Amino acid sequence: MRTILAATSCYSLQYGVHTPREWVTAAKAAGYGAVGIADRGNLYGVHGFLSACREAAVKPLIGAELDGILLIAKEMTGFRNLSRLITAHHLKEGPFLSLLPSHHEGLVVITADPEHLSALKGAVSSLYRRICSGRDIVADGIAPVVAPPLLCRAAGDLPVQRLLRTIAAKGTVAAVPDRPASGFTLPEYEAQVSRLDDLSPEGAANRAALVAACTIDRIDHGFVFPRYPVEDPDRLLKERAYDGALRRYGELPEAVVLRLEFELDVISRKRFTDYFLAVADIVEENPRICGRGSGAASIVAYSLGITNVDPIRHRLYFERFLHPERSDPPDIDIDFAWDERDAAIDKVMAHFGRDHTAMVCVMQHYRSRAALRETARAFGMPDRETSEIERKLDEWRMQGSVGNRPSFDPAWENILTLAKRITGLPSHIGVHPGGIVITPAPVRDYCPVEMAPKGVPILQWDKDDTEACGLVKIDLLGNRSLAVIRDALADITAAGTLHDETAWSPLDDVPTQELLSSGRTMGIFYIESPAMRQLQEKTRRGDFEHIVIHSSIIRPAANKLIGEYIRRLKGKGTPSLHPVLDAVLGETYGIMVYQEDVSKCAVALVGFSEAEGDSLRKVLSKKDREQRLPDFKERFFAGARKNGVGDEVTSVVWDMILSFDGYSFCKPHSASYAMVSFQSGWLKAHHPASFIAAVIGNGGGFYGRQAYISEARRMGLTVTAPEVNESGVGWHGVERTVRPGLTAIGGLSGALPAAIVAERERGGRYVSLDDLRRRVALTPQEAELLVYAGACDALEPGLSRPRQLWKLVGPAGAAQQGSLFGAPDTAAPEVKEPPKQALLERQFQILGFLPDRHPLALFRKELTAHETTPAVELPRLIGKMVRLAGWLVTMKPVRTSDGKTMAFATFEDETAIYETVLFPETFAKYAWRIRGKRPNILFGRVTEDEGAVMVEANKLETV
Amino acid sequence: MREREIVHINVSHFMAAVEETLEPRLKGRPCAVARDAERAVIFDVSEVAFRAGLRKGMFLRDARRMMRDLTLIEPKPLLYARAQQALFETMTQFSPLIEQQERGHFFIDASGTRRLFGPPGDLAARIRREVKEALSLTPSTGHAANKLVAKVATRVVKPDGFASIPHGGEASFLSPQEVELLPGVGPKIARTLTSLGVETLGTLAGLTEGQASAVLGRGGVRLRLLAAGVDDSPVLSGAQGPTVRVEAPFPEDSADPEELSRRLFDAVEEGGMQVRFMNRGVCALKLEIWYADGLTAAGSEQFPAPLTTDRSLFLKATLLAGRIHTRRVRVKQVAVTFSKLSESVRQLDLFIPPDLEKEQRLQEALDTIRRKYDLHAVRYGRSLG
User: Fold this and answer.
1) Which of residues 85-124 of B touch A (CB under 8 A)?
2) Based on CB atoms within 10 Å of each CB, which residue in A247, A442, B258, B384 is the most buried?
């Protein structure tokens, strides 16, 4: 069999050019029956490689290169040893050569290095001398194998390879050799092998024998999760579930008991008991969490405190989570406050042991932007110039990529061509935000582990590969809103309001429901986006059940459905499609809202089995849906016909199914999120200043900080400047005042805000600028920032900022002396007070916002000429053309069905926030002109739909 | 201290100005001196172009986007070198104390020339006139009691005005000027001063020493004095410690180490010859690198014994470049400054190594040819690339 023993793939990062799949295809086309991939120190690409080999019916050889030694796994023992060696190499656990003799079982060891050979001779069983050039054929008792290194397919790939090496070296292309020290193109390799095979028939024969000895074609470890360390885990889970249920429900109604028993039975039979107990332990110590995913349908999870939504009250069905007939692993995601997440992960690692836990990796790939940037840098182009090129390309794309791409000078054209070649190649390996794997034996027995720069062990495989080989992943993720809730509650408790969280039931709170139904939901978890606020405004529903629906129906591909949903909700929709659907989709007005509605309808309407329905649901979110959907569609329509459903009805249903393209939620997940929405909504309704402060203090949510400051002002709250006597380190709300923290002053040294607050708490309020100067060490730059942020205005009212600064940085001691001698101002010369406008601009520069006014005020002079209408008047101007000043809040481009781009953009002026739509023509013409942090002037018609006002923009100008 | 009379002459946009003298139709037009190439970098711009925001060091195509009717002038390095020399010679008739800064910038110490040339203010005007007559260049000209005030004066009357600041009138001249005009006040210091409400040189000069040093550090005391017009730095003429500075712009920016090496050699070769013509050797070398994105890198080195041959200078410059050129960005210009030029050149040392001996003889032969024809009559292969 013709064999490639070891090709380099793109998973030799910044070195290899081709994906393993490309190698398999190329090798197959060139008549090879077996292909090996050996990347440098990793098995990143092994799963993709194996599946490509299965599809092409090519024999795979799993290998890796470590310190110039080629290792190939013969069978699973060899694979485990390979994984252990790679891990030991990454964790720097000792000289590799000394580890090899204890890990050589099942491995083929091949090297050309004479020193390595003599060190390993006799110590490892399958040792070979690598023959690459012909000069290396030596008769010394070590078996030769002809295996020259294979770098890329053709000579045309070499410039790409050179570029990758340049990127790795952070150098410039002209300064990097055009070829690496070794490595052949495929034609060169073929010539070399045939020459060497003639020179060393033994080396050729050994290659063939070696290939025959390799047998791995799939890696599947089975269900991998550690046993919970008690004698009878099932019994323990039952006890803990019942205890928890008693805490949640008080007495246990029959429905609860029945459900518990049913779930416990399924969990036990599916051998997930250990998993549930482990997850329960993880959340036990930190109850401010949001358990979500389909697992939120489980009453066992609810009882164990893993989730917070009562599945009985809110009709969440366990079968969506663990169906007795299906075999997929359980899926529970747990959100922690974003700043507590790392600690939660550390705890899990400490508990199970660092050898037995690892984070899943995320393979990062060069996206077109990064590819262009890196390539440009390799050619010495300044970043600014690259941005300019990007801007031109973006503009062209925004206008629908009509006509030819803008052309550039030859140097740039070459860069663009090469950048395209590296786009999509893996660039580096990162840590998954929350996926953690726990294993009974050390993790490295299943998959190589390396150390992420931030010091956590990570698997060399991403979540799909990890799960595909049987490892169970638990997702521990970060959620900003949980921190917002925590901080806002702490704020109001600090102000003396008692808050009992165990008795807190925001779901039934009327002011909260009213707030949600009004659409004034900025800052509230998950329902604050413009689309969501509009949906709230149009439906005017703020009860839990509707919020659950709304959190799920707003998804990328469901735009059309939403209009129909609103009409049906208001009783004006089209009549029922089919009685079966009415029954299945009753609570969502006959509209498919949740992921599981897909399989439910497939089962009820067209007679799919549970499993079939479920795989249809899953296909919709997979990368290869384009290939696999037609088959489902055919079966769907055929099944419908068999059940006597007409094709028109079936097409409508099928279209609804397609609306789950991209991401979508199941109901339990939405319900878990809605619970967090209600908690944050309650805080906004009852403690708005603390709430907004907590939102901003946690880095904002969907919007940037300015948007929340404007929202606070619209809510009638006062926003102050940060002040040395009033502000804390972070943001706080006091009654109806939002106080920025001293950290809002950009450019202060990290420790200064805390030092100012600590000294104030120790020695009392600062009574003057001299007092501040005496008690806190300020550099001149820091003093300048404090003064021009307005943080010292209240210390000596009336004193101009330049004179404040003189007091803080002028000659030391002079002020105090001066006052003694009756000449208080000798420390500061006569200086002019800067104009108000300059002061505001400076303050805006330092803080990024203005405390007492909207930043549009900075442009008042320019704006007055435009005679704009205040946005607050829009509801009275339906149907009219208006001219508005607009500060961009957010913009969302959308693809129309005919491939054009349009956008929904949210703007605000000094009076109100408002929504606009830019239809494709307007978008193409003006979108690139819209500027953030600058005023825009919009012309357009005011429209109204179901109670929500929107401006259809048709012209834009920048000021 | 004796009363001093300093004249500062500044031909703004030197290359463009020289070109305009040859091609009068260019006058009043936006022009850029640059190669006609895809990624050409502008060597210099005319006054009109400057006022429209064009700057030297910009990419030609960016400049063309800003000004569609920009006239392109092919750079003529020899011409500018000759013009600079002619300018210098025009001035030598008035004083032996002339400090050359960049091209087109001169300080002339005219102290004690009253008997010969009349009142110094008139002399300054005369120099300006003579430059105009001899070379058709109109420099902005400042006259004052010291270099600092003379320089601020030319900045105020830029691009082609004339100002003579009478003795004792320094403070009242400087007082209303913005702090940014003062040499030594960069954007950072200017910003600090604005924050403190100090916007004019008068306010700056009015600070007490304590105030100035408290807010600006040690340099503050000096700035305050400068703002008051106090400056006693001497005019450094050739004999007292001149420097030779050569800028070598790249026709197009480049990330190729070979191109950098070629341009570096150009600069060393041109500067080296100037130094040898003065019969001197180089004891200090400064190297500047301009990157395509506008940032610069600089470094310098001193030598215990003077270097004279292009080879030895180039070797040192290359090593220095290796140390300071750490960025991946394309380079668009290098500049070499030779200073600490020592008197003794030819070492008549018996023990001089034969290689060095050979090298020096070669250098002399080259220089002889160049003196006879011009700088580019004989070249090393490496600078042709």
Assistant:
1) none
2) A442
